[in-house]
Amino acid sequence: MLARCNPVREVAGIDPQALPDAILQGTQPVVIRGLISNWPMVQAGLESTHAASTYLRSFHRDATVGAWFGAPEIGGRFFYNDDFSGFNFRAERLRLDQVLDQLSQHDHDAKPPAIYVGSTTIDTCLPGFRAENALDLRERQPLISVWIGNRTRIAAHHDLPDNLACVAAGHRRFTLFAPDQLGNLYIGPLDFTPAGQAISLVDFANPDLAKFPKFDDALNHAQVADLGPGDAIFIPSMWWHHIEALDSFNVLVNYWWRQSPEYMDTPMNALMLALMSIRDLPVEQREAWQNIFRHYVFEPDDGTVGHIPEHARRVLSPLDAKTARELRAQLLKRFNR
Fold first, then answer.
1. Which has the closest alpha carbon to 167: 253, 235, 41?
2. pLDDT for position 91
3. Which residues have C-beta within 8 Å of that of residue 46, sequence separation ≥ 6?
4. H or E stretch including 240?
5. What is the pLDDT of residue 2?
């Protein structure tokens, strides 16, 4: 299926303490070979699964993590159940060492249950890990998370922040699509999702092109990268990415950050409000609002507010933290009427 996909651009020899802005501020994905190859976590994973698990346990105290468990029959693909009333896995909170015990128990199973710890803040569950396994992102203050599991498949989704994903143990395959492939990926519900982000309904391991014919065109635009221990990949904001963990034990550490100020809200809130207030209007009114959004949001220029005295532009002025707080307070008052 992936034979015709394009490879993600690769670079090597990058100093992990001097990652260039040309990568971290980019709009195209980049594989960075060997970026974290000197991490003790990576070296432990190369020694053995047992050594990697033991290394993680050395930092764990008693914090709990969110874990997903799926039957062997799902083939590692965490997804909806048959009628989309729920999911094909169960979610539990338990200590990380208990999850590691279960991974070890099924390490040699031909068809193991799917086990997955996703997006867990690393300082919470593994205090001290970052001191030994570090990257310098300079002025950025990323959210740093760890992902642990066996052979799993995470459906294509996108994230608002930029993402630097580092393979600390095992191997992973990333399949990426630019934001303009939205219409070819058959995205599921926006407000009922496995992990907060809407996902593609296409099974990448066995795509049903009769049911999802436009996915065939998406594959012509896909970019694919296979990463091993020590490799990293930069995934720009809003790029769709499907992630497959290929080994019986896998650890990923990722860094998320936004290139916009913290006071800016998530655009997903605007989308949800637009669905509630604009989508079902008569077509002429929708077209009028489309023009208003184009004028004020998507294509503003000097003529948009140039006729208004600068001191009177209020929310039409460049946004800052004070204006954002005031605007949020106004919106809350409207919602609570």
1. 253
2. 97
3. 229
4. strand 240-245
5. 60
CA-to-CA distance for 152 and 159, rounded, in angstroms? 19
Q: Walk across the sheet containing 30-33 and list its strands.
A: 10-12, 30-33, 232-235, 162-169, 250-257, 143-149, 114-121, 64-70, 89-95
Phi-psi region of 52 (alpha: psi -120 to 50; beta: other; left: phi over 0): alpha
- 142-184 pLDDT, tens digit each: 999 999 999 999 999 999 999 999 999 999 999 999 999 999 9
β-pairing, 232-235 with 162-169? antiparallel
Residue carrying the six token digits 């969110």: 66
Pick out the chain residues at pLDDT < 70.
1-4
Segment holding 50, helix H or strand E: helix 49-57
Q: Which two tokens stand for residue 3?
A: 């034979």
Question: What tokens were used for 168?
Answer: 């600390």
pTM: 0.95
